Each structure stands twice: as structure tokens, then as C-alpha cells.
Amino acid sequence: MKVVICAGIHDLHLTQALITAFESSFTPLSQLKETGNLLVYSPPYPYLSLSAVGILQFLHDRLGSSKTAPPLIFLGFSAGVVGALGAAWGWQLMGGNVRAAIAVDGWGVPLFTNFPCYRLSHDYFTHWSSALLGESNDSFYADPPVEHLVLWRSLPTITGWWVHSDESHAQHRTYLTAAEFLSMLLKRHENEGVASG
């Protein structure tokens, strides 16, 4: 399994700060980096974060055929969620295995997919209003709220609520860190067979 990071339209140093923070405090992603299973899409122009075609080209350059490549999890931030979801759909249509997509502050981006999608938001309002465009069984919002860019740069240290439903569709909340939430999602999909919606 490989994780594809698709950042937004911001200084690339923020994504590097995130990866550095993961190295010291977030074991699953640091292990992925050590084993070469962490792919970071860093386009030459920030607006290309929106380009599903650019991300697909990047993946083909790194992985070859989508049909023989390992399963992917897409982790997108802000505007990068647009490109990440478009690329995930495209990768799947070309025969690739998409295990999940994780949208970090992808406000206004619909999450209607046939593979699992999850949201992380920098505050409750973003969490609530984003759910109107498709909610998942599991989501996270920061509490206390943080600034948009702080969420991406400091994911391992942000605390908040994991919102999840049980089999009877009753909603529950668990207080944890964003890193713990991401760790749970990665472990959930790590050994999964074929992705399903």
C-alpha cells in the first residue's frame, strides 16, 4: 500500500513541515516514508494541485501501470482534495486499487465516491457544513479549533473529535489527536483486499 499526499495551493514548506512532524510522532506515515511507500505530489506551480491529470501523470511516472501498482490511499489538503479525488476516480477507472481518500479541510468538495472517504476539518463549522456535501462514517474536527494552514502543518499534535456511527446509525464522539485518527484509518485499510464503497 502507498499513500499519495496531494497538498493545496500554499507554500510547499508546510507539507515538508507536516512530513517532518510525522517522522518524530506519527509512526504509520514515518514507516511509509522509510519504506518508500509515501508519495508526495509537489507540482512546479501550486495551482496544479487541482489537476487530477497532473497527479495521474505523477503516479504513472512513479508506479507504472495502474493495474499492476500497489493499492493507494489519497491524502489531500484544501484545494489538493479536488485533485486527489479526481485522480482517485481516474486511477480506479484505469484499473487501479483505491483503498480510501482522506480529505483534510476540503471544504466545499463533494465526497460522493464508491471507495471509502474521510474528512478532517479545522473547526466544527467546517465539519458540519462539509457534511452537507457527503459525509462519511468516520470524520474528525479540531477542538479547540485551529487555523486552516495550522491543521495541515501540525496534524500530529491537533486534538479534536472523531465522529463515528455504530451499526444502528447512532452517532458517537471520541476525543483524540488527528494523528491517532489518521493512524486508525491507515491501519484499517492497510491489509484490506479490494476497496469497496
UniProtKB/TrEMBL annotation:
Q: Which SUPFAM superfamilies does the UniProt record give?
A: alpha/beta-Hydrolases (SSF53474)
Protein keywords: Membrane, Transmembrane, Transmembrane helix
Q: Does the keyword Transmembrane apply?
A: yes
**InterPro entries assigned to the protein according to its UniProt record, in alphabetical order:** AB_hydrolase_fold
Transmembrane annotation, as ranges: 44-60, 72-91
Origin, by domain of life? Bacteria
Protein name, entry field: Alpha/beta hydrolase
